[in-house]
Amino acid sequence: MRIxxxxxGGRRLAHPPRRGVRPTADRVREALFSILGxxxxxxxxxDLCAGTxxxxxxxxxxxxxxxxxxERARGALAVLRRNLELLGVLEDPAIRVSGEDVGRWLRGxxxxxxxxxxxxxxxxxxxxxxxxxxxxxxxxxxxxxDGDSLVIVEHRAARQxxxxxxxxxxxxxxxxxxxxxxxxxxxxx
Length: 189
What we know:
Helix content: 25-40%
Distance between the termini: 37 Å
Structural class: alpha/beta
Strand content: 15-25%
CATH superfamily: Vaccinia Virus protein VP39
Number of strands: 7
Shape: globular
Strand order of the largest sheet: 3-2-1-4-5-7-6
């Protein structure tokens, strides 16, 4: 794993120590950030189920600020912190790390403190459909979204998530067995 482009482009990242953590592949991250282009720079980027932090750190490398990384699993959180060390950004005020459950974090005060994000990225375990549906339902009312925000869900390509009321599809892409679904807040939200 490596950072694809930007300030930290080419820098290597630590891999998860065990099975069960599925980092976003370099080619999928490269495609995602090619689609997003300059829309990431200067806006908050929230990476929910951040795992190793690779997606959020790619956003940081491309100028997103602040970057919020939410990851509950201890093993993944340790790798995430190691990756912050490898990039020399462990103490960077542009990075915020939370070890909370995504649902608890979305219900708390932090989303409103972050303000409207440019991108909210969700990459939950692919067998967590029910939890993902609950998290997506929380997004329209938690303070993270405005009319310019984009919610992106990485998912198993064969099973595209169902969007709740309050989010409308923007685009979707498929990369082998990985799918990306992007959504925007519905008008009036």
